[in-house]
Amino acid sequence: MSRFTGRPHSHERASAAALAAAELLEVLWGRGQEAARSAEVSLSQLRALLVIERHEGTNLRTLAEALGSRPPAVSRLCDRLEAMGLAERGPSATSRREVELRLSLRGRVLLEQYRVARSREVTATLERMEPADVARLAAGLEAFHAASARLAADRDDAAPPGGDVADSA
């Protein structure tokens, strides 16, 4: 029985609803990716740009860990991003052997276009909902996000020093 509602299996029901919503969001996100692809950016390039944005100044090794890929493949990926004018490499402030990755202005514009397209798709769906349902959804998602952050913090406390960059990407 759930400690929250007193009804059995409510966690399973909530989990199923969350998974269904995640799958729907993947479809909606895909439409946003189509907008990014109009700039001829592959899904892996888009993922790399998002990680670089979140971890501005990251190095190739950390980017490879976040993407779950090998450094040589990520280096080639960054070659393509740089050739397209979406990312820039520069010397690291802390190590002469490393380079830092940053988004270019063109890369930032591309991600903004991507987010606008995604937002348009989500907003179109939300506009078809009753206002009270939208408010409950927002409250539930905020609670879900807070619980996820607590879980990540608990895992970080149990993890060896250095953590797992993929969890934060």
Overall pLDDT, averaged? 82
Tally of strands: 2
Largest sheet: number of strands, sense, barrel closure: 2 strands, antiparallel
- Low-pLDDT stretches: 160-169
The first-to-last residue Cα distance is 34 Å
What share of the residues lie within helices? 55-70%
Instruction: Record the strand order, biggest sheet.
Output: 1-2
- Structural class by SSE content: mainly alpha
Morphology call = globular
Beta strand %: 5-15%
SSE succession = HHHHEEHHH
Please work out how many helical segments DSSP would assign.
7
Radius of gyration: 19 Å
Overall description:
- With 169 residues, this protein is mostly helical.
- The chain has seven helices and two strands.
- The chain has helices at 10-37, 43-54, 60-67, 71-83, 105-126, 131-158, 165-168; strands at 87-91, 99-103.
- Strands 1-2 form a two-stranded antiparallel sheet.
- Helix 2 (43-54) packs across helix 4 (71-83).
- The longest helix has 28 residues, at 10-37.
- The two termini are 34 Å apart.
